[in-house]
Amino acid sequence: MQTTKDNINSLELTARHLLQELKSIFSDSGALLILIGAMIIYPVIYSIGYSNEVLTDLPVGVVDLDQSSLSRKYISMLDGTSEVAVTIEPASLSEAEQLFMDNKITGVILIPQNFEKDILKEQPTHVAVYADGSYFLKYKTQYTAASYVNAYFSGGISIKRYMAEGQSFRQAEISNSPIDAQTHILYNPSSSYGSFIMPGLIILILQQTLLIGIGIMGGSFSESKNTPFVLTPDKQKREVLPLIFGKAGAYLLISMMNIGLAIVLVHHWFSFPDKAEMTDVLLLLFPFLIAVIFLGIGLSTLFKHRESSIVFMMFLSPIALFVSGVSWPVSAMPQWLVELSKIFPATTAIPAYLRLRIMGTGLSGIKSEILFLYAQAALYGALTIVYFFFRIRKSAAAQ
Amino acid sequence: MEELKKHAVFNVIRRETERIKQNHAYRFLLFSGPLIGILLLYLIFRQGTTRDFPIAVVDEDNSVLSVKISNALDAASDVAVSYKPVDIFQARELLQQAKVDAIILLPDDLEKSVFQGTKASVPVYINGTNVLKAGIIQRSVLTTLKTISGGIQMKKLILSGKNQQQAMARVMPVRLDKHVLFNPYSNYNYFLNSALLYVMLYLFTFLASIYTFGNELKRGTGPGLLAAGDNSVRLSVLGKMLPYTIIFWGFAMFINFLLYEVEGMPLNGSYTFIFIGQFITILTYQLMGIMLVAATSNLRLSLSLGGAYVMMGITFSGLTFPTEGMPLLARYFTVLFPFTWWEKIMISQSMRGAPISEALPYLCYILLFMVVSIAFLPLYKRCLKEEKYWGKK
């Protein structure tokens, strides 16, 4: 005689597991913090940190050994850039060094003696720029500003000389630069740091919080949790699919909420570039999410204690960030590491997401990535299901 | 009396060693975890040969000059001409599929315009999605084009009767001499690598501390710990911390070896100061772990918070984006992480070789975190003793 408990149909079982999982998530502060709290806190706090997007008015010191009208002009051009501000004019290089060591200035520019005289005599001269290489972005910003100023200043001098030889301004311009390179930075014209790092980072946070969160909620065979099965042991085979799909459903629901927050609202608040249709974004994120969720459920079965998932997964976050190529170009990494990192769905999803959302390539540009993610989801799902069957048979054999 | 106290600490150390032997999570936190983390990061940022970024050249001119430009671009450092699409539309497609990172268009009549002295523009389109990558490509492409342009200008000046020096002074009246201080190769690796290896070290130090001190509460083994420690929370904590301090200090030495010996990172300041700084930072993160456990009396919540805290520290140390560029609110936020101060010590002593007096305040800020954490010891003792704090997750 079957009990009513065993008569329950698969759909009802799935719904029951889904609700059960949601209930346990909402009654666990650690899991709530990771699964929902982190998705609010991280993107907002990070975006605030990066919200100024570009460095402006870095304080630099100019040592002007020439004190001429041309050197004055050079300094005022430097000060006029948005990147640096000439805050002080030390009398000597050693004085400048002291100011630098005291963190009063981030770099030094030295204009030599006879700067003006050499220029008027049509002799080559030079300006030295000392930039702080220990902070990479500061170095880059200061050096870029100095290069621009120097190019404009030099260009001006050359053009004047061509004009003195009788050329028109237009002709002089062409003579001074026979090939005129015109740079267009596409998709992120202001080269802003926030727009560059945040969209990819958000996808990575989505993955890491899901993996850790699912682990915290406990593998179904972990010691610190009661059996998740509703049916009696002999009927449990029938319950594997409803259990796994129920759980996956719960995390998919939570992820949808997180997407609304991080992918829609945070993007909107900080005006990150957005050239994609929302439906296209969702078409990419759906296989990504199910791949991550199945991977998470699979991994969670490996942890004996629930908190182990934090211990084992947290340290992978910065590594997963770098292998996805969001900040440091992937091409500099060993190839085997890049291939290995494809275990994480984000490694595939992030570049595709950036192409879709920042570059606006449309779905056709990311077809292969979407297919890869579906295959990955299917593989992880299948492995997890097989593992569950295996465990059930093992425990049945033990009894 | 002295003898007895010494004994208590050893008791606790013995007890801790047993615990470490029994649970594989401890072994992961203490040995394989940091090792894997450090080695993976090291491999990612190893100063290997950076492969060139692929670019596309659309050569509409097919002249001697355009071929020369194309070859020069291919030979330039950091970029390689990997595609030569027939038109800009094909090139655009390559860019969108991320097969190339930039397009250089050499327009029809380029050579003719250049030699007739009419305007000759070369448009360069760079994918700006990755700011770092775009910067490298831009620098490489523009330098190459400028060199060729300068060469043509020079030739014309000499044809018009100027001597070499006069021509040079016209092409480049003011030369910019670049001096990159403290990082002569302007190598981003030194910078990120040095910092991230330490992130890994402190992350594991912090998590291991939370895990072992939190487990006493989770399993309600606090009274046993206090008994072994002669009922003194200070002795118990000291004995429990020590094995971890020693092991993580060992990992700090391993990182130093990788950075200074293998990678040849500059060490311009005081190694003694760096050494002391590492030791104090490790101790601080250990004690902060106890503070977190005592404050929440919840192992799992502490681990979640702890992990999140260390991860956030990366952003707010100014490592990726300098703190000077952050809004005021975020700048205040940066002081809340010992890692921010550690990073300043590292830059001051390893790269800049600044006087120790410059770095000393940073060390004192780290000590402040330690003092605050120690103030939580009595609370931790209460958690150990009283049953109502036990067993929470």
Automatic annotation (TrEMBL), chain A:
Places the protein is found: Cell membrane
Membrane topology according to the record: Multi-pass membrane protein
Span of domain ABC-2 type transporter transmembrane: 33-385
Signal peptide: none
Keyword annotations: Cell membrane, Membrane, Transmembrane, Transmembrane helix
Highest taxon of source: Bacteria
Keyword Membrane included in the entry's annotation: yes
GO terms assigned for molecular function: ABC-type transporter activity
Main location group: membrane
Keyword Cell membrane assigned: yes
GO cellular component, one term: plasma membrane
Membrane-traversing stretches: 30-49, 196-219, 240-270, 282-303, 310-330, 371-390
InterPro entries from the UniProt entry: ABC-2_transporter_component (IPR051449), ABC2_TM (IPR013525)
Name of the protein: ABC-2 type transporter transmembrane domain-containing protein
Originating species: Marinilabilia rubra
Upper classification of the organism: Bacteria, Pseudomonadati, Bacteroidota, Bacteroidia, Marinilabiliales
Automatic annotation (TrEMBL), chain B:
Membrane topology: Multi-pass membrane protein
Subcellular location: Cell membrane
Domain ABC-2 type transporter transmembrane: 28-376
Keywords: Cell membrane, Membrane, Transmembrane, Transmembrane helix
Main localization of the protein described in the UniProt heading: membrane
Any one Pfam family match given in the protein's UniProt record, by short name: ABC2_membrane_3
InterPro entries: ABC-2_transporter_component, ABC2_TM
The keyword Nucleotide-binding appears for this protein: no
Annotated transmembrane regions: 25-45, 195-214, 241-259, 271-295, 301-321, 359-380
Annotated GO CC locations: plasma membrane
Any one GO molecular function term: ABC-type transporter activity
PANTHER family: INNER MEMBRANE TRANSPORT PERMEASE YHHJ, MEMBRANE COMPONENT OF ABC TRANSPORTER YHHJ-RELATED
Designated name of the protein: ABC-2 type transporter transmembrane domain-containing protein
Organism of this sequence: Marinilabilia rubra
